[in-house]
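Quick one, T. Sequence first:
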Amino acid sequence: MAVQRLTFKEMCAKFDVTPRTLRYYEYIELLKPDREGRARFYGPRDSARMKLILRGRKFGFSLEDIRQWLLIYEKEGTDVQMKAWIELADGQLEELAEQRKQLDQAMLELQRLRDDTAKALKS
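Structure tokens:
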């Protein structure tokens, strides 16, 4: 059974990323495609890593946090990885809670300004 490999273009399409993004992830060594001449081919490992990278980005993790987490997995296995993940997740949950608080405050202030402006127009 042949291993499914994606071309550069197929990888961009599958994960809805720009070529520049994909090249950057390679440059910082988050992905390591097989190379045949100038062509790049991405195997199941790269697809799995890309899913984790995009999920991490969605949750607001930095690429460096994601890279460190992937390195831990490669070098130390899943128990260490899961403990590191819990620590990263705890920190990110705190960060997201702070961002939510700031966003809620900004929305309240904007609503007040909007309402004050609407009242001024009616008088």
